[in-house]
Amino acid sequence: MSGPRRGNDSSPASDGESGRGRSGRDDDSGRGGSVGDGDSSAEDGVGAVTSSQPADGPPPKPRSARIRSIAATVGRRLEARALAFGAVVTGLVLLVVFYYPVATVFVDAFFADGRPTVEPIVSVLSSRFYLVDIFGFTAYQALLSTVASVFLGLPGAWILSRFEFPGRKTLRSLTILPFVMPSIMVAIGFVAAFGRNGTLNAVLTGVGLPPVDLLFTLEAIVIAHAFYNAPLVARVTTAAWESVDASAIETARSLGASPTKAFRDVVLPQLLPAIAVGATLTFVFTFASFPIVLALGGFQLATVEVFIYSRIQNLAYAEAAALAVIETVISLGLTYLYLRYEGRKRGSGQGARPQPRKSLWPESRAAKSVGTRIAIVGYALVVLAVFVGPIASMVLTSLTGPQGGLTLDHYLFLLERQQTGASYQVRPLPAITNSLRFGLGTLLVAIPMGVVMAVLTTREFRGRAAIDALAMAPFAVSGIVVGLGLLRGLVFGVDVFGFQLQVTGAVAVVAAHAVGAYPFVTRNVAPLLGNLDPRLVESARSLGASRVRALVDIELPLVAAGVVAGAAFAFAISIGEFDSTVVLAEGSTSYTMPVAVERYLGRRLGPATAMGCVLLAVTSLSFVIIDRFGGRYGESGGF
Amino acid sequence: MKRRTFLQTIGAGGVAGIAGCVGGDGGSADDTTTAASTAGGEETTAGTTTGTAESGTPELVVSTYGAFVDAPSTSPGPWLKEAFESEFDATITYATPDSEINYYIERALQGAEIDADAYVGLNVDMLIRIDERLEDGLFTAVDDVSGQGDVKEGLNFDPQGRIIPYDTSYVSIVYNETMADDGDFVAPETFDGLLDPEYEGDLLTQNPTGSSTGKSFLLHTIDAKGRDGYLDYWEQLQANDVRVLADWATSYNSFLEEERPMVVSYSTDQVFANQEGQDLAKHQIRFLNDQGYAYPEGMSIFEGADEPELARQFLEFMLRPDVQGEIAQRNVAFPATTGAELPEEFAEFAQAPPEAVTFTYDELRDNVSEWTQAWERQFASK
User: What domains can be seen in chain A, in order of their start residue?
Assistant: First the structure.
């Protein structure tokens, strides 16, 4: 099944020479090396070629023909360099809004008063407290959370990819919701759902079972982490499952394999990389978990991020930096291991015809068929408790008045704040429109960045996994550190050759969101791209297509599912992002919905939860709408 | 100086270009250029878009914490702005950086210009951080502010006289009387009482490094149990299943959800409960050892402020008896001065402790990091 995958390194069609030698000039022309420029030139290039296409038409007039031919030449040149250009722009954006800012914080771990030192790192590594109690526990809870997320996510992927039922697509769209929930909302929802007087205990005592005391335990933290990350596992696995080619399974079956054996030999190998990426990301995310841990567990369950926050709060930068560096190294190391694994797993082919879905309602009364459905019902109950419970509890909180009765007061507060709020106060409507604007802006920036990075890292070269891991660093670095770095690096400005470089407001927010989001695009696209038969691209190129044209015309349509899946995450990351936004939007009107939620926190949680529900409603609506309109691509991949 | 301003302006514009500024709305309004500050000249603040300063009306930039101007319940900010502007020829612009005073400490550390005139909402921890990190500090001495003499004794926390307190809170236990099997929960009266098995799993408090109530409670235990005894005390407290949560909001929410009957909070709790028409039995106050930990908030003028005179007038305004009364009611805290004008019902629901406890600036500067870190290491090692 998996043909030899050597094409890429030996292929003469490799775009290695595409402007690389002249990158110096690229840099000059790209002095405004902006994302916008990069996009437009790439599009110009494509557009110019397209306009020169109708060669079959009537013979063009000489003048316009000359212009066309010039345009075509310019277009071809731009196109030839577009990929390299995209890579340079991606690198620049990463440098400006990620690597440089983070370096301004990390430097304190290695330099004291301008002199190099190993003291901060050594003192952390030689501390039993940090090493065993804090890092050890952090890894332990991340591991438990990962296992829980995988176990909770996989049945969901199975149901979403193998069964047909009304509302399936909407349900799949809504699996993104936990991603955008501010942690304070999750904490509130969990207390209301799993607390002593919570919904779960009301149900348990209602059916005659003893109540459980879940709060302020490791279990509560693990379940909350699963709430965030099981949907991630489910989404990526669903995308992979839907890409499994039915004919491969049929072939296996016709050769005498039992359904179980066919699953193990054909389906499972294609799911494993997706499960692995879901598990890796879950581990990395929960390793850096912070507000949830202290809100649902308490300080005796403190993770390393709690200490990074505390040290930064007290301006103990060397210790904060040392902790953050070690945290990043662990996360990146794990990511690196995953990427090496992903690299080895490539080349299993892309499904042309997905398997038919089964009806959720049993077709027969056979014991197995009925048993499966009972299992599904059991799973649905768990989903109801873990996902629907907290969200519904939060909605209920937003509708509950101080006396306990139902009220719309908190939503009226939002309306009133919108109408009479002063300019220095946070108003709901700008928060909503900003969130949507930034979300769209993030898509426009993150998708090209993610695709370029995916193309580059699916090629075989030494150190590929290392480069790939570095590109994933935005996931691995503490959000608190990134926030402080952005303050130092962008908000205050940097002196570059006498110029005061300073970026804040909308542009900076979009750039920061894109940096946090693009790895999702890369991770969703790269495995699919790696699965493609390299001969496809080679044929296109031998027929005269440029590398970019081959990418746009041949590869991207084939991996559209991955692009759409990545885009969904990118949009959700942008909507939910808090740490960088609050720093970059400071003092401007660029605040977003999560920032508004935080601002409306007070003695009563009504206003904040009302804003949280607005956030959920806007996000749900966006995803359902995009799902309706994007149905063409949404069918496989799922927004 | 002119040349530098020019370069900075170009620089910022250049960045907008590099970052692919789509449309001017994000770029121009929000990108900040550090303009040379001239007295009375227009100044771009940290991107604050209030922008109501008309030429001729001096602009006073007051930096503070978000809840001071934008709390969902009540906050003094809007009233203060209106009242001050109606009396003085000035426009107040509020800046509310998320990292509060650390934002300005960072600015000073990185050599960026400070673009505010006054700061409202300083506490002793912040002052210690400023003095530890910045040789020259951030604030000017404010010894010629009339009304300063009215500040209650014991609230002044800056030995160098840079900061004037404008209100104070007292950190205490808030408990829910109805949360017992017999419907009559009574919080213990002493710190030792909290260790009683009867109160196992009953108390919620907050992370001392992330929350001022949590910090105050920790300091209060140090005051009560001594610097050699507080860790032992906390060991027993932890054994009695005290929970230290992230911050005031999450712990207070759990208290309201009746997860636990006691929470560390403010002694003004009943003011809110009364306004919301709640059962006051669910909002009882307990001053352990008959003490409350004082948490005064102060204000000052930035060194090198553009409008030092106006800032001084603002500070005086904040200390006026009528304004002190308004701040106390709108910030739900106690006034810092002796002569504040307050309605009688305020005293009915805002409870002051028989004895206020606090550490001095010097004691805290020398010890507080050590105390908190020792506590962290003990409490967080499983």
Answer: 7-81 (no CATH), 82-115+407-639 (1.10.3720.10), 146-301+366-398 (1.10.3720.10)
